[in-house]
Amino acid sequence: MPDPVLLISGLLAFCACASAAAAILPASVRAPSRGIRTGVGDRIFAIPGLTALERDPDLVLRFKQAGLRDRAHIRLYLIMRIVLPLVAVLIGMTLLQVLPDHNRSAVWLMTFFLFLAAIGYVLPSIYIHQRAAQRKEAIRREWPDVLDLMLLSVEAGLGLDAVLDVVSKRIASGAPVIAEELEITLAELSYLSDRKLALSNLAARVDLPAVSLVVTALIQAERYGTSIGTTLRNTTRDQRISRLADAERKAAALPPQLTIPMVLFFLPVLFAVIFTPGIILYLMDT
Description:
This protein is an all-alpha fold. It folds into 2 domains: 4-132, no CATH class; 136-251. The protein has helices at 4-23, 27-30, 40-45, 50-54, 57-65, 71-98, 106-155, 160-170, 176-191, 195-206, 209-224, 228-252, 254-285. It is flat, with a radius of gyration of 28 Å. The relative contact order is 0.07.
């Protein structure tokens, strides 16, 4: 039988974490949705506020930046933010039952369980953030080459839609992340009435200054009728200069970063090689 103090502390910690999660939900999520008809199955299995939270624009954008576009991913994410704190509290209760008791107070138990519940609550967010960061880094690394390919396609006489189609097919094996984003943009250009919105969605999904700069230039070219080739040529030159400046800045920051590894790993070995023969000769003489 679990200790009642452990059980009560764990339940209080989980309730506190759940209350904090409910408190930070948007007002549109906490308020019941009106005028939306749902089926019998949706009414039975729906969690209050879950359907509204799945449509939250900020949350949907975060998942798009992570490359997850299915609503099932958002639902699983929301359910895991409910389940993982409870699982973490149960694991903590099991560990405390196995480990020897050292006069744990109720405040200590409450703090311990609250810490575990908080870890379980933030783990899904950390996963989504890391996935989005990896995807953004992949796009940032391949974007200058993709931009050069787009410029070559425009100078060959292709329009914007044809450029996106050709480039997305050419880079599908080497840069699948950018190819996927360009394919989505091409599809949005074909069915959205406002082409500016399709390009703006690309900048929002990628969330990189380099991509936003190109998107802004393309939107201005579409609006004012200027040459896309000239726009991409100027943008490519600026991107190349910026890329060179970033490389120089990283190279300039390298010597200070190497100071600590040299002190910790190189100098002790160097001193050992220099002083060890003398120490050995001294010990042999004595």
